[in-house]
Model the fold of this input.
Amino acid sequence: MSLLELNYKKKLFPLIAENNSNLLKGYNLKKTEKIKLPNNHLQYALTWYSLCFVIIIAFLVYRKKI
Done:
């Protein structure tokens, strides 16, 4: 027995929903292809760390520390 059946003290049966209307016939409701997102995390990390490094070097050159 599930928790809902115990709380409501009724036997709950599996619910099957079926569409019998013509309203949604014109829409494509089939499962679409899986969306593939590129994994560019390493490229982004290298870009931002190198930009940070260049800015630090430029700041130190500007302050005549190097």
